[in-house]
Prior knowledge:
The protein is α+β, with helices and mostly antiparallel strands. It is 34% helix and 23% strand.
Amino acid sequence: MTKAAESLEQSIKDATAERGLDRDCTTLSRHVLQQLQTFSPQAQDLSALMNRIALAGKLIARHLSRAGLMEGVLGFTGETNVQGESVKKMDVYANDVFIAVFKQSGLVCRLASEEMENPYYIPENCPIGRYTLLYDPIDGSSNTDINLSLGSIFSIRQQEGEDLDGSAKDLLASGRKQIAAGYILYGPSTMLVYTIGRGVHSFTLDPSLGEFILTEENIQIPSHGPVYSVNEGNFWQWDESIREYIRYVHRTEGYTARYSGAMVSDIHRVLIQGGVFLYPGTVQKPEGKLRLLYETAPLAYVIEQAGGRATTGHENILDVIPKKLHQRTPLIIGSREDVAKVESFIQNGH
Ligand code: AHG
Ligand code: MN
Ligand code: MN
């Protein structure tokens, strides 16, 4: 090899090593600042907020990874939450983790969760931290005791007004008010996916570093995918239009079903590989099961930012204005073409 060729080869090797190292240094908090291209107080806040959410994710992941080895971690508490659902010990643990990481943070004044009837106030943070965290501490609770994938969903809003009576009325606003949203997926590895309105980015927890390291930037959802993800056990409770859509996928080549019981994992699959996730309403419960502020709006923000869509069947999820904190909505979310197909069955019957 000539000297020139040798030096070229060396510089390519150096550049590759540098890129690799730079990528390893792209932690979540650094990424947020890079995205915002400023060190303004708001950018610092967002970076710190994401860092705390990441800490909550790490604590929950650690707890889950040892759950089967400890006493009193798995199973039900015997209580029922405000949603009328049986509460698992893991729901309570994860709910408390988010509260604990935001205490004394000076960042978050209120936390509103699927598991709490009313928001949790941290008055000492209020003069400085005018943010509210909305979250689903454990998504896919039915997977908890059998070591299958779970998630946490989060969303951040700026507090509007003083909320002196503690009614949190300012939260009854559309999903367009979210300034950040995303989820943590506890699977074979722990991943964090987030958006601050500048695309969707994924991070993987490197347990040896204890850091979420950038995995993929600016994720774009395919415009169509083979997967439809829905609990077909509800077939006879759905409206005829949804049943017709399911009959359509059954007789059309190229579709395949996937349903894990945790929508964070099902929607993560759809984000990466395309397709559609549905949790429609039923004739008895037209509003469906999923909660707008903690589940459907944050995931809709992520999927829209990745170029996909999320709708109730009649209205974009991000435009829905809730009447109450724990409001539910039907959800059809995923690739643009696949969401449009379901929509067309709901609106035109075919
Ligand atoms: P959660 O565990 O927070 O109550 O949410 C579970 C949600 C969602 O993750 C999942 O897709 C769906 O409920 C499963 O419900 P079904 O058992 O009715 O299919
Ligand atoms: Mn959930
Ligand atoms: Mn939950």
